[in-house]
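Standup notes, protein team

Yesterday: finished cleaning the Kockovaella imperatae set.
Today: Mannosyltransferase structure.
Blockers: none.

Input for Mannosyltransferase:
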Amino acid sequence: MPPSTKQLRRKLINVLPNLVPIAVYSLHVFLAPYTKVEESFTLHAIHDVLAHGLSPTRLQHWDHVAFPGAVPRSFMPAILIGLLSYPLAALSISLGWVKTRVDVQILVRLILAVVSAHCFNHLSRTLRQRYGASVRLWFVLLSMTQFHIPFYAGRTLPNFMALPFVTLSFSLILRSGISSIPAKVSSARIRKSIILLTATATIIRLELAALLLPIVLSLLMFGRLTLETALIAGTVGGIGSLLVCSPFDLILWRPTLTHPDFPFDSYLQLIWPEATSLWYNLFLGKASDWGESPWWYYLVNALPKISLSSLPLAGLGMVLWFAGALRLIKPARTMSGAKDVMESFLLGGCCLVLVMSCIGHKEWRFVVYVVPIFNIVAAFTADYLWQFPWRRLRPLARVGLVGLVCLNLAFTALSTYISAYNYPGGQVWRILHSLPMSGSKPVIHYTNYPLQTGASLFTFTHIPLQSRALPLTQNEWTYSKSEDQHLETPSGALSAGLDYVVLDANLYSSWEDTRDWHVVGTVQGLGKWRRIGKWMLGMDKEIKIYVMGRADGDVRGAGGIIEV
C-alpha cells in the first residue's frame, strides 16, 4: 500500500531538517574553499597526517617543526580529522574524483562540515523529541540563515573544532530531561555531556571552562546532577583526555623546543598545550599583542553580529517566560521549553561572556558557543509568535518573523559574497599552474600576505610526496615561506635564485620599474565601497597580489599576464 500524502509530509518534515545543515555547511565550503592563517595550524597538521603519517621518522617533515607558531595547540583534533580524511581521500583519488591537493583540502573541510552538521542535527532532533517538530524547524531555520557558524563550520579554527562537541553536549543535557526515559538513562546522558565538555575544554579550548563550570553548578542546583557524579565525570573527561592526548602532543612538539621563534623550552610546557597557551596569553599578557577591545565589545558588537535576529527573539523569549512566571501574562505552554534551556545554560552562557569580556584581546569566535543557546530560545519565541494567541495580531507577528528571517538571509548573502573574495592568496596556485615552468625545479617564494589570505600546504601542489591520500605530481617545485625581508626586494630575490615571487600588492611599487622581473599574473580582491546611483552601494575590485617572474626565463603564459 503506497504511503499517504500525510505520511510523506511527516517523513519530509523529519528528514529535510537533517539534510539542510549538511547542504548549507557544504555550500559555504565550496563558495569559499580557501583558508586564512588562523586556520593554518590544524589544517597543516591534517596535511602532514595525510602526507607523512604518524611515524616519528617522518616528524622532521611536519610544517610546525619549521614554523611552530606562537603557542602550542593539541594535535589531537587534526589527527582525528586526518584519520577520517585519509581513506576518503585515497578512494577519491583512485576513482579520479580528486585531482589536485586543493581538492583534498576541500574534501577535508567537507568532512569537518559534515561532522559539525551531524552534531547540529543531534541537537535539532533532541528539540523535536522533547518540544515538537515546529520548534525544531524554527531552530534549523534561524541557525541556517545566520552567517558565521555555517560559514566557519568547515574551517579548522580551534573554536570550530570545539563547537561540534559543545553542541553535542548541549543536546545530551536537554535529551536527559525527556520524561519518558528511565532515570539511569537520564543520568548517563548528563554524565556523558560533562565528560565530553570537560575533554573539549581540556584539549581544544580551555576558555570553555567558563561555560562548563556554571553549567555543572546549574545542574547541581536543580537536582539533575550529584556532586559525586560531577567530580567523577570531570576527572574522566579532564585527566582521561590528557592521558590520551599528551603523549601525541609531547612527541610532535618536542622538535620545536630548539626553534629560535618558539617561546618555550621545557617538556613540561608541552604536556598540556592548552594550559601553556593560557599561561602565555593571559598571565604573561601576550594576547594583548594582537590588539585589545573595550569590555562591552561582545555585548554591543560581537553577539548581535553573530546571532542576528536570534538575539532579539531570545531576549523577547526571556521576557515572556519571566512575565508568565510572575503571572503578569498567561503562561505560554510553548515557552515552557525556554525554562529548561535557561535553567541549564543561562548561567554558563552569561559567565562565559563575562569572563571573556574581562580579557583585553577579544574576538567574536571566543563566545560563539552561546549562539546555539540563543537560537534554541529564539526558536521557542518564534514558534509562540507564529501561533500568537491574539488572532488579530497573529498576521503582524508572522510578518515580523518573516522579515527577521529575510534580514538574516540578506546579511548572510552579502557577507558570503564579500568573504568569498577575501582569500586572494588561495588563488595563486591557478596562476602558477598556467605558467610554462622553465627549468627542472622552479623556486617560488611567497611573501607574508598571500600566506595570510589563502595559501596553504594544500595549495603547494607540486611537492613530491608518496602518499595515497595526496595526488602524485610529475614536476617538482620548491616553495619558500621564508620571512627574510631581503627576499621581498628585486635584487634580493634575484640573488637568492628565485624564479617566481608571490608579492603583496603593497610591495609592488619597489618592483614596478625593475628590468629583472616581469608581472606574470595578478589576483584581484574586493576594494573600497562606492556609491551606485542614489541608493545603492557597490565594491570595486582591485589587485591584491602580483606574481612576479624572472625576466631571463620563459615565465609568461601564452596569453600574457594571467588574471584571476
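Follow-up from PR in the comments: The domain at 424-563 is CATH 3.40.190 (D-Maltodextrin-Binding Protein; domain 2).
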